[in-house]
Specification:
The chain has about 475 residues and is mainly β. Helix content is about 5%, strand content about 30%. The chain folds into 4 domains: about 20-135, no CATH class; about 150-230, no CATH class; about 290-330, no CATH class; about 335-460. It has 2 helices and 39 strands. Residues about 240-325 have low confidence and may be disordered.
Length: about 475
Amino acid sequence: MATYVNNLRLKEIATGAESGTWGTSTNTNLELIGDGLGYGTEQVAADSNETFTMADGVADGVRGMYLKFTSAGSLTATRTLTLGPNTVSKVWIIENATTGSQIITIKQGSGATVNIASGTKKLVYTDGAGAGAAVYTGLDADTAGADIASATATDLTAATGNTVVITGTTTATSLTMNVGQQMILLPSGAWPLTYHATTMNINGGVSYTCAAGDRIYAVKDLAGVIRVSVFKQDGTALVPGAASSVAVGDITGAGTGVLTALAVNVGSAGAPVVLNGALGTPSGGTATNLTGLPPAGVTGTAAILGANTFTGIQTTPNRTLPAGGQDLLTVPSVDNTATGQTTSAFVSGYSSSAIGDLVYLASDSKWKQADANTLALYNGLLGIALEVSAADASLLVALSGSFVYAATVFPTFTIGSPVYMSETAGLVTNTAPTTTDAARRIVGWGVHADKLYFSPSQNYITHT
C-alpha cells in the first residue's frame, strides 16, 4: 500500500506495487515537487479561524513555497490559519492578501505561532513536531516598517518591517514578539524600558530610558526570552548606576605634601580619575567631615582616626561605616532584597526560580531547589534566590551571613528562633522535619516576622 508521510505528501509506492502504472505515479510526484517550489493560493472561506491541510498525492495550493492567502469576505479580527498535517516540516513564504486589514496568525500545533500583518509577507518554517508543532519566522528582510506606538506591552508581531520607529513615551514593561523574530527599534524620543528577565531582558540587567537617536536590537530566542540590546546614540556603554561625581568634603590636617592639588573625577564609564596629585601616607593629622566614598575600583590604604585601616573601599548598598571602622550590615527594609554577600556567578538549574527560594549549588555548577528529603539536595553550599530567572540564566543568590527579606515566600518567623530547611523543595520552615531520614539542617534565625538572618549550619542530623 502506498503511503504519504513525507513533507510534500507525495505518494511513496510500496515495494513491487503498481506494475505498469509506476511511471504515472512517478510523473505525478515530479509535478507535485514542482508545485512545492512554486506559487499557490488559498482562500479563507469565512470570517473565522480555518485549517488548510496539504492533500495527499494531488495538486493543492497549500503545497506551494509561495503561499498567498485571500479571503472570501472582509475579516473583522485576527484569524488563526492552521497548516496541516502537523507532521509536515516545510518552508513557506506567506502573503496576507486578505481584506479587512487584519492580522493572520500562522499555526501548526500547540507550539509557537507567527503573525503576518495585512498586506505583508513573511518567510516562515514549520517543525512538523506533531501535536506540539511550532511555526517560526525565517529570514527577516532588512526593510523599514510602519511606525509603532509605544505601549505598556509593545506588540511587534504585526510589524510591517524589521526596522521601525517607536513613537510616544509610554513606559514599556514588555515586548511581544514571535520566536525567531528580530527587530531594530528607533525611539523617536524618551521611551522608558523596564527590565524583565523574560519579556524585556535588557543587556546589563537594568531598566533604561531611551533617547532619540538610540538603536534597540530585540530578538526572541528559542527559549522564549526577548533579548534587548541598547546602542546609545552618544556611543557610551549602558552602565548601571554610574556615578557622575564624588563628594569629598573638608579635609584638615592631612600632613605635608600628601593631598597636593588633589581632584577626583568619574569618567563617562564610571572609572575614577585622579588629577594633578597623588594619595600618600600622612605623617600626622586628622581627616574630618568626609562625605561620599570612592566608587567601585578605587583601592588602597588610608590611615584615618589612629590605627584603623581601610583597604579596597567601595560603595555597598545598605551599609554604614561607623567611627570604629567596622562594616555593619543593616536589615533590609525593602521586600525581596538582601544585605550581605551575594553572587551571580552561577546559573539557575530549574525552570523558574522564585525570590526567597532556598537553593543549593549542584555538581553541574547550577543552583537548584534544596530539599530536606534527599541527601544530594541538603548537604551542599546553600543560598537564597533574589530574582526570578529561567533555567540556565544567571541567578543572583544571597550567601551565608546575609539578612534576607522575602515576605511572600517566607513563613511567619519567631524572632530569635531557628529556621530549618523544609521537606518541600525550595522552602524554609520554623519546624524541624520529622519524616524518617529527613535532614534537620538549620539555615538561619528569624529576626523579624518575614526577615531571616541566613547562616546555614555546616552540620545536620537525619530524623529516625
